[in-house]
Amino acid sequence: MNIRTTKSIVLLRKLCLYPRALRLNNPSVQFISTIPKCEQLEVVEKDHVFNVKLNRPESRNAFTLQLWKELRSVFDHLSDYSKCRAIVLSGNGKSFCAGLDLKHGLTDIIALLNDNEKDTARKALELRKFIEIAQGSYTSIEKCRKPVVAAIHSYCLGAGISLISCCDIRYASTDAVFSIKEVDVGLAADVGILQRVQKLVGNDSLTRELAYTGRNIHSLDALNYGLVSRLFESKDDCIHGAMSLAQEIASKSPVAVQGSKMALNYARNHSVEDSLEWIITWNQSQLQTEDLIINAMAKQAKQLPEFKDT
Ligand SMILES: CC/C=C\C=C\CC(=O)SCCNC(=O)CCNC(=O)[C@H](O)C(C)(C)COP(=O)(O)OP(=O)(O)OC[C@H]1O[C@@H](n2cnc3c(N)ncnc32)[C@H](O)[C@@H]1OP(=O)(O)O
């Protein structure tokens, strides 16, 4: 064993023995606690719950390339950040999300299509990268290990529906209006609505009707359709309701909650047989958690259980 390897082992041992609080203050591992810097998102924390807010109110939170990239970096971070146990996704300003930014988003695409330096194949590859970034951004919400509750108010259009389709739970205020609007812009939706929505709501016929017409769906219809699971009188009530739900989720065993999300995600796209096999493999390790004992002891003592972060 050379000197460098010995040094690395000593360093590793020190890191493992280091108290966690100290590790968080150590600049070399500080990334664990730092939310990525964002201009088009605002992120606030309260008691293990993170509220991620779309923050382009002057454009009704329409999506730009930058917003897609910021969303991805925040959700990738929160997925791994042990202090985070549940997330609320909401929108600042008058509307939750007006879909693709028709000024900046579209002008970028049009500039690319008009670029005479590039042949058709190269333009297609550039467009492919663009769509992949948008898809990957939303998929990071679905893959995030922590449950995400969307709190939707006013307009939620086009890419906004792709966004909420990746969330675990959707709440809305009674003023909410939804539309699979892509058909009115002249494109087949490509960032998740058509792949996810009918699986969420279990109504293929109505999904097709809405996708082919771009018709508005008002909050009560969205509730009946199964797109949202609860309605609130106002935006503030909706965010409050979503935060309370997230806080309730955050009080449960993180091992149990995260395992449940992973299992439900897997089951949506696999057979019952495969999914049962999957949960055996998952739980053969996760059933060894101390959270089972903590829960049982708290019940016996008639106290609320307190769980460690994951
Ligand atoms: C690779 C492709 C990936 C994804 C593709 C997704 C496709 C889609 O998302 S399709 C949906 C596209 N979105 C729309 O068609 C919505 C357009 N906006 C509206 O219809 C309305 O603005 C509204 C959302 C119904 C809100 O109305 P209101 O509250 O009355 O506000 P306005 O005065 O209309 O708007 C205020 C301000 O915001 C700007 N804005 C609104 N939406 C967008 C948008 N999608 N893109 C860019 N900017 C938007 C609007 O222009 C106003 O700006 P001012 O500078 O103040 O004029």
From TrEMBL:
Organism superkingdom: Eukaryota
UniProt GO BP: fatty acid metabolic process
GO cellular component: mitochondrion; peroxisome
One Pfam family per UniProt: ECH_1
Assigned keywords, A-Z: Acetylation, Fatty acid metabolism, Isomerase, Lipid metabolism, Peroxisome
InterPro entries found in the cross-reference section: ClpP/crotonase-like_dom_sf (IPR029045), Ech1-like (IPR045002), Enoyl-CoA_hydra/iso (IPR001753), Enoyl-CoA_hydra_C (IPR014748)
This protein's record includes keyword Isomerase: yes
CDD domains: crotonase-like
Annotated pathway: Lipid metabolism; fatty acid beta-oxidation
Catalytic activity entry: (3E,5Z)-octadienoyl-CoA = (2E,4E)-octadienoyl-CoA; (3E,5Z,8Z,11Z,14Z)-eicosapentaenoyl-CoA = (2E,4E,8Z,11Z,14Z)-eicosapentaenoyl-CoA
Primary site of residence: other
Record's subcellular location: Peroxisome
GO molecular function: delta(3,5)-delta(2,4)-dienoyl-CoA isomerase activity
Lipid biosynthesis listed as a keyword: no
Described function: Isomerization of 3-trans,5-cis-dienoyl-CoA to 2-trans,4-trans-dienoyl-CoA.
Family: Belongs to the enoyl-CoA hydratase/isomerase family.
Protein name per the record: Delta(3,5)-Delta(2,4)-dienoyl-CoA isomerase, mitochondrial
Native source organism of the sequence: Acrobeloides nanus
